[in-house]
Amino acid sequence: MDRIRVADGVQLAVAEAGEGPAVVFVHGLGGSSYAWLPVLRLCADAGYRAIAYDQRGAGLSAKPRGPYSVELWASDLVGLLDARGIEQAALVGNSVGGMVAERAALALGERCFALAMVGSALEWAPAAGPVFAERERLARQGRMDEIAAAVAQTALSERCRAASPALHSLFAAMVAANDPEAYAESCAATAQATMEAPERVGCPALALCGELDPVTPPEASRAIAAAMPRCRPEQVAGAAHWCQVEAPEAVAEAVMRLLREAG
User: Is the pTM of this model over 0.85?
Assistant: First the structure.
């Protein structure tokens, strides 16, 4: 992991592999760049400069006091590209990371040549509000193990949890390792997150989700595609919310198909 400094001095931890057109991966709530590493490697092997990073408040990045926001996270993403001297990039975000990537795409304009949103939504369903509030409450009490167990139930499909108990355990461990206060601030920010003016996103785009995603089901991806001029919806068969974790090959192929189409 390398480190870069964004505009307000916060350091972000960054993993990078490969050479070619830049593709930047943005994780969701409770995650880190580790959740993208299998997809990152597949994209790097296919001829892309693949970059994944830990958002502020997560993983190995700095964890300043809140409040956080999706706008701040999007600004960090633009700052990462500037710090790396990247003139053009494709952005790929999971869950709230998809909202971050969409807002960054608007800010970047023609600098963003493709956008993929994986398990994301224009806005959260009303039922999500109490879930985020409960996770924030538990995090402020330091009860990250309980949060991790609950998150893993929707992040990975039942088939994946049964067939790959080691992957299930590693995923839960990633969530449990979050700093409780930073995770609580991230929960509060995620609860308020939305996409902004999707009709203004001009680059080719993909709204991808797991077929069995209970958090952002296929209708959420179809709603994104309907709102975004050059966007299409796709599904990953048999996968749940963090489909890049349980089906990295399928997700990488869908993303690279978009990149090839975008030229």
Answer: yes
The confidence score (pLDDT) of residue 1 equals: 83
- The CATH number assigned to the domain holding 252 equals 3.40.50.1820
Cα–Cα distance for residue pair 191/132, rounded to 1 Å: 6
Within-domain flag for 207: yes
In 3-state terms, what secondary structure has residue 152?
helix
- The span from the CA of 148 to the CA of 171, in Å, is 8
In a domain, 236, yes or no: yes
* Residue range 86-136, pLDDT digits in tens: 999 999 999 999 999 999 999 999 999 999 999 999 999 999 999 999 999
Q: How confident is the model at residue 2 (pLDDT cuts 50, 70, 90)?
A: very high
- The token pair that represents 61 in the structure block: 């990045």
| The CA-based dihedral angle spanning residues 209, 95, 154, 145, taken in that order and rounded to the nearest 10 degrees | 160
For every residue of 200-229, DSSP letters joined together read G--S-EEEEEETT-SSS-HHHHHHHHHHST
Domain enclosing residue 32, as ranges: 2-125+192-262
Give the length of the chain: 263
- Within a domain: residue 252? yes
255, 257, 262, 263: CA torsion to nearest 10 = 120
d(CA 166, CA 163): 9
* Strands of 22-26's sheet in order across: 2-5, 11-17, 49-53, 22-26, 89-94, 112-118, 205-210, 231-236
Tokens at residue 82, please?
Answer: 């500037």
Tokens linked to 48: 């892309």
